[in-house]
Known about the structure:
The structure holds 2 protein chains of 2 kinds. By secondary structure, chain A is of the alpha/beta class. Chain A is built from 13 helices and 10 strands. In chain A, a hairpin with a 2-residue loop joins strand 4 (55-60) and strand 5 (63-64). Chain B is elongated. Helices cover 81% and strands 0% of the residues of chain B. Chain B has helices at residues 3-15, 18-52, 58-76, 79-94, 100-125, 129-137, 142-172, 184-195, 199-227. Chain B has one domain: MetI-like fold, CATH 1.10.3720. Chain B is mainly α. The termini of chain B are far apart. At the A-B interface, helix 6, strand 6, helix 7 and helix 9 of A face helix 6 and helix 7 of B.
Amino acid sequence: MIDIRDLYKSFGSLAVLRGVSTTIHNGEKVAVIGPSGSGKSTLLRCMNLLEEPSAGEVWLDDRLLTRPDPYFYPEVMRASRTYASMMAQTTAATADEQILQRIRGERLLHRHEGRAFRTALAAVEEKSRLDINRARQRMGMVFQHFNLFNNMTVLQNLTLAPVQLKLKTREQAEQRGMELLERIGLADKRDQYPSTLSGGQKQRIAIVRALAMNPEVMLFDEPTSALDPEMVGEVLDLIKQLANDGMTMVIVTHEMGFAREVADRVLFMEDGNIAEEGTPAALFSSPKNARTQEFLSKVL
Amino acid sequence: MSRVEWELFYNKFITYKGYQVALEGLVVTLEIAVFGLLIGIVIGTLIALIKMIPKEHRVARFFSAVCDVYVAIFRGTPMVVQLLIGWFVLLPSLGLQLNSVTVAICVFGMNSGAYVSEIMRSGIQAVDSGQLEAARAVGLGYWPAMMRVVVPQGVKNILPTLGNEFITLIKETSVVSFIAVVDVTKAFRQIGDSNYSYIIPYLMLALVYLVLVMLISLLVRLMERRLHKGDRHS
């Protein structure tokens, strides 16, 4: 289960995520759709901390992935010197100003608070935080541009992490790697380098590279956007297989047909927020939000 | 180039064994360039490693700033000035007894360290950031991810440029006679001095450097081709 609580992310003064909250339950397949620049990929990348959120928290089961957000802990805020003055300062008129103030407030707290605050925050962190490398072992990620390790053969791509992290011996990892390659019909490519493969092959290998860690959750960041049209099918088929096996997944995608077919729940993102969510049937056939309607009328 | 000049040169170079001086000079030139580059690689790697440490910690920021100052000083002043300071200022004030070739090697090493660190930094930066992200995403820590995935790919960018740095070093060593080192330049100058005829010795000197540099760039190109054998299609 991934629990996202009031997540904010800004790049400079550009607030890309503006207070996103949602929960991804075990076994659930969630598709994230929306116009480009709406924060879909940023949300996904915050889930395994490739992007560090500016405020808010991400939980994996009962452990905290991000650093704790002081706003959520009254005992921490009570230890704060600037808390009172910051609360009094809610002069922000527009929603935009409020969001930037929230993010700035968070940054100021982390940077300028005194020992009492730090100790209180460290206590929370001690209690619930999960080491990020441990967490990432449980969450596979698939990128738009595949990102296979170019300096390694296909099989080495699959065995690097399990061997390096001492989860498996080399023999075990290679055996598992070959099983996975056979499953996608690319066992004969084991000793080739990624540069000799087609986009569809690369992406399927990137997917099984993530599977080699036996993750509980898979995160897909526009897995078919960089592919030639004739290769989209083979990648989507593999993702569908995973879905049928019961894998929990979050898929950022522009493939509406695929989202409708595979997802249990669809999130429509707009301007850094979840504007609407629901079952694919409900969201695609009778969207309630005006922006959702407009977006769907353009892409369907 | 009259016949007389050729005869004078031949006389000095062959009959009076001037080629021995020239050869000794050539060895000194190569010595300074090779050891200079080796020291440069050690210093450059060290600086590049320090610059790779994530800047979250105050200590990392401090050492990174120290490296910046080092690089700025050695890239911001001429080689000759660095040699002169090393030989006439630092050596006496530190009370060290070193011969001038050793000093030249040290100064060239430190100078080249500044350049090599930049070569390494940019070579590693040129590796697609998705590679590090993918390595982190499967659960590798920052350093294992860098060492297993990013740095090996960066080395491909770095090695050929290091070859060019070596070529630059060889040519730059021609100023070491400022601190009384007899390198190949000084040797040919002495040959010219001996009978006040400089045309042929200096043209010969240029030819020596040219052949040397062309040989090395040939080696660099071969190395480059071997390194990129794997990724012809990308």
